[in-house]
Amino acid sequence: MTNDKKKIIIGNWKMNLNMQDASLYLQRLSELIKIRRDVEVILAPTTLTLQSLSLQVNLRQFKLASQNFYWRDHGSYTGEVSATQLRGIVQYGLVGHSERRHIFCESDKDICNKVAAAIRNHIRPVLCIGETAWERSNGETYDILQDQLIGGLANITSDELSQVVIAYEPVWAVGTGQNALPTYVSAAAKAIRGQIEHLYGSAAAKSIQVLYGGSVTIDSAADYLSLPELDGLLIGGASLNAHSFSEIIKKAHKGSSTGEKD
Ligand code: PGA
Fold first, then answer.
1. Is residue 260 part of a domain?
2. Which numbered atom of ligand 1 lies nearest the CA of 10?
3. Under 8 Å between Cβ of 125 and 165
4. For residue 28, with 0-12 CB atoms within 10 Å meaning exposed, 13-18 middle and 19 or more buried, which class applies?
5. Which residue's CA is the nearest one to ligand 1's atom 3?
6. N or C: which end of the chain has fewer CB within 10 A?
7. Helices (H), the chain
8. For 244-256, b where at least 16 C-beta lie within 10 A, e where not — what string?
9. What is the reported pLDDT for 155?
10. Domain membership flag for residue 162
11. Distance CA 124, CA 87 (A)
12. Whose Cα sits closest to atom 1 in ligand 1?
């Protein structure tokens, strides 16, 4: 269904790696990975290291993402960094990651404002959605996905939707070592596309890129990457080591014959 689209592999470093570690990592990863047109590799380091990595990175090889940003463009918001300030430094921005929703109490309203701020500033938002263990055990998974999609995409037009990436990240799977089974992820990705179809039509549902994230490892990556409903992965823990991350990226290339270049 979606095999002709570019795969996306995102490494979310969370609050790990200082400036020197980040620079060494980038150098190491660039030695391990060839540039290919069929996979977009995106690194999401801490905000602190984004500016210096943006000077070091070869954008033909990797793109950068912010893990978070504030939705207003500027003003008296102590401690915040805006999408306007990140413009030109990052190409993508994570929005509504479960750690932001649940540890920092971000609401759907914040998230919808951030999606709009990203688009306004030419940053592609990666909207993260997913149910908690409690919601799952209550059979609410699809209702939660629907609510978070409607909430996060409120005020986003069909044209703007082409900039949005959706990451399905069940909260119970993120950072727990308990990854969701591929069949479960496949059903959730179908439900996400069904909701996008309802909101924006069937062409949008086919073309939107849907990723999975939650305790993906080198061993489990290929099973997700072979799902026709999925366009890639959002990796936390397994992205912290350049070698393991490069192995996952190579699995995304596998089977593709397009565009290898050094
Ligand atoms: P994890 O994190 O791979 O460590 O579960 C995923 C994420 O934060 O998106």
1. no
2. 9
3. yes
4. middle
5. 236
6. C
7. 19-32, 47-56, 83-86, 98-102, 108-120, 133-137, 141-153, 158-161, 182-200, 202-207, 218-225, 242-253
8. bbbbbbbbbbeee
9. 86
10. yes
11. 11
12. 236
Residues 170-184: pLDDT tens digits? 999 999 999 999 999
Gap between the Cα atoms of 9 and 132, Å rounded:
23
| Atom number, ligand 1, closest to the C-alpha of residue 239 | 3
CA–CA distance, 218 with 212 (Å, rounded to integer): 14
Catalytic residues: 97, 169
Total domain count for the chain?
1
Centre of ligand 1 from the C-alpha of residue 29, in Å? 19
Is the whole-model pTM more than 0.85? yes
Handedness of CA 69, 71, 74, 77 (dihedral sign): negative
Does a structural domain hold residue 203?
A: yes
Ligand 1, pocket residues at CB < 6 Å? 12, 169, 174-175, 213-216, 234-238
- Give the residues of the chain that fall short of pLDDT 50: 1-2, 256-262
Coil, helix or strand at residue 184:
helix
Determine contact, residues 70/81, Cβ cutoff 8 Å.
yes
Indicate which atom in ligand 1 lies nearest the CA of residue 99.
Answer: 8
Q: Given this model, what pLDDT does residue 35 score? A: 84
Show the domain range for 178. Answer: 7-255
Please report, to the nearest 10 degrees, the dihedral formed by the alpha carbons of residues 176, 242, 247, 127 taken in order: 50
List phi, psi (to 5°) of 50.
Answer: -60, -45
Give the distance (Å) from ligand 1 centre to CA of residue 75: 32
Q: Which CATH number is 169's domain given?
A: 3.20.20.70
Tokens 């793109």 map to which residue? Answer: 63
The confidence score (pLDDT) of residue 259 equals 35
Residue 239 domain-assigned?
yes
